[in-house]
Amino acid sequence: MVPEKALPEIDSPTTGAHAPATDAWVEAVRDLFAPSGRLAQKLRDFTQRAAQQEMAVAVAHAIATRAILVAEAGTGTGKTFAYLAPALLSGKRTLVSTGTRTLQDQLFHRDLPRLTAALGVPVKRALLKGRNNYVCWFHLERNLEEGRFLEPETGGWLREIRRFARHSQSGDKSECATVPENAPAWSYATSTRDNCVGSECPHFDDCFVFRARREALDAELVVVNHHLFFSDQQIKEEGVAGLLPACDVVIFDEAHQLPDLLPHYYGESVSTFEALRLAHDARVELSTLGGDFRDGVAVVDRFEKTTRDVRLALPLTGTLRGTIADLPQSAPFVAALVTWQAAASAVHQALAAVAERTELLAKLAEKAKRFARALDTWQQAAPTGNGEEVFWFDASAHHLTLNRTPLTATEAVRDLIAASPAAWIFTSATLTVGGRFDHFRHQMGLTRITEKPSTAARWESPFDYRRQALLIVPDAIPEPNAAGHREAVAQVARRLATAANGRTLVLCTALAAMRAVAETLRTQGGTDDAPFVVLTQGDAPKETLLARFTTTPRAVLVASHSFWEGVDVVGEALSVVVIDRLPFAPPNEPLLAAQIARMKRAGSDPFLTIQVPRAATLLQQGAGRLVRSERDHGVLCICDVRLATRGYGKVLWSSLPPFRRSRSLAVAENFLRTLFPEPRETAAPSGVHSDGAP
Fold first, then answer.
1. Which of 39, 101, 343, 419 has the fewest Cβ atoms surrounding its Cβ within 10 A?
2. Among 104, 108, 29, 98, CA closest to 63
3. Are residues 164 and 201 in the same domain?
4. Neighbour tally for 513: CB within 10 Å
């Protein structure tokens, strides 16, 4: 055993007491990941990887110099440990933000305990989610007592939530196995910042939200998600106390999601769902004041009715999105919108008149004021927009959301990072397009930051992609917009799944295509003696579908957007990935359409500047579902000839892993038959593997 060495300390960026021992400390981090280093000593399954070691050194240097680091680490590099280890050893207050709650939970419950034990560093850590993830005793008990619900099953679910909360330490709904996370009951059992009464609450001492916040404020490392991080920044800008402590190190994992998400965080939205929640809370709170406040209840009832009327006045069916210019300027809808705004203003006035009676009434009055102001902004907006933001709607069968979104959040993010004394680290397996960081760095405003040093680095995956996998673009398949393309995709998937005895994930770019391909595979897939077990996104929660897929013989999983990333199946259970077409976002998607129009006005090429980079990132994510370990083998099939025939295809090709390539479906079938010569009778061994595993 190599004797353990104490790491040189680096001073806190907030004190600036003396210059950090940068070189010595960075070298100590390098030693951690050496073949005979501490991680090799303490972790039995540790494999020394040069790329992981180099990334850890780069992270350590960024922390020591309070720099910006953009780090792309290919699948299997071990990027999670590469950024966590230096952060833990630095002794600095660190915030880690993830793109998904799944990774957030994995980091906190699995990766951090393993790493802190191996390093022997007793770091106080905390997990913090948005308040709608935690049971609120006040609203749970009040709504159970009130007992008026639209859905008949809600009462039973709320009683189940109460049983869960009585024995839970965290109140985190993800730990409640008996109530689905998307159950409507959760809206009655959680709070929002607009209906939380804070220290005035009779349950304040037992509040799960404030307990989680206190732990976060006291922690040295806090794990959050992107939504909470940027929502908190917005709250701070509005003068409300932020949820998150000031940090010395900020790390974004799954950072490739940020450029598309950021404009939405800096925008504003109002919805009929939100309005109905406001009406419900106001009515219940007013009813506690007695009969003298019946007029206020009548105002709230009118607001609730106008909320329902505005969706009914929209002559659209199904789920649709569009800009303000797409909304009908017909008298019924315009009148309904005007009436809705007036009703919201009336609710504000009614609640403001009694706001001194309770803390909740004061908060609901402010909520109604913001709601009315947002609706007034919508009424005043020009159908053509103002060139800096887009007004757009999202309508489902029962609800309507009105959004105001800036075309870019580059300046806001640039200012946030430049003003911060922290080190900022952005990492993902897919940050480059064609091997270059230009798109990500520009979208994040990093190219315009001069206040602190900035660098970008890329580490290739350690996998032997040419040996492990084959990429095919079938030469006989129709173009994506041609008749028969969906049927052709289904037939390609059927042939590959037959050769692999199932083990196939089909990723579609649209729900309609997903349903069509799934139906064809159900009716024509496999044989009478050995049909495929076809699983489709939406049949069950994502984790349930993945569990069935990995344990069911001859399984084929057909899915859409939510499965393009975050699917981490190790082993032969997933050996074929079929992508139906290049994942270009629809050009009529409201925010993208406005961005395209602005770029055209500026004389730029939006297709090459926006659409191709976005497609490249998503294509990399989809392709990354195939090979998750050194032992994985399989076929990636992209059913879009444009990849091989269009000029922009070269950019997309260069963004993909260096698989062996072919245009022949027969070659792929033969390759799979060598891997799986016999039909599997039982499920193949498989498991979930983290990029952050050692």
1. 419
2. 29
3. yes
4. 20
| Angstrom distance (rounded) from CA 224 to CA 216 | 10
DSSP secondary structure, 342-384, as one string: HHHHHHHHHHHHTTTT-HHHHHHHHHHHHHHHHHHHHHH--TT
The residues, any chain, with a CB within 8 Å of residue 137's CB and separated by 6 or more, are: 165, 201, 203, 206, 207
Q: Within 10 A of 71 (CB to CB), how many other CB atoms are there?
A: 26
**Interior/surface letters 77-114, b for 16+ CB within 10 angstroms, e for the rest:** bbbbbbbbbbbbbbbbbbbbbbbbbebbbbbbeebbeb
Is residue 80 within 8 Å of 208, Cβ to Cβ? no
Cα–Cα distance between 277 and 465 in angstroms, integer?
51
Beta carbons of 138 and 203 less than 8 angstroms apart: yes
Note the pTM of the prediction, 2 decimals: 0.91
Residues 486 and 569 in one domain: yes
Domain that holds residue 583: 465-688
From CA 99, how far away is CA 558, in angstroms rounded? Answer: 23
pLDDT interval class at 23 (50, 70, 90): confident
Tell me how many degrees the CA angle 642-643-647 measures, rounded to the nearest 5. Answer: 80
The CA distance from 565 to 546, in Å, is 13
Is there a single domain that holds both residue 677 and residue 533? yes
CA distance 575 to 660: 15
Are residues 167 and 310 both part of a single domain?
A: no
Q: Which residues contact 602 (CB under 8 A, 6 or more apart)?
A: none
Q: Contact 489/516 with Cβ under 8 angstroms?
A: no
Burial of 56 (0-12, 13-18, 19+ CB in 10 A): buried
CB-based contact 26:13 (threshold 8 Å): no
**H/E element, 400:** strand 400-406
Amino acid letter, residue 532: F
Segment 15-25 mean pLDDT: 54
Count other Cβ atoms within 10 Å, centred on residue 339. Answer: 17
**What tens digit of pLDDT does each residue of 485-495 get?**
999 999 999 99
Confirm whether 694 is domain-assigned.
no
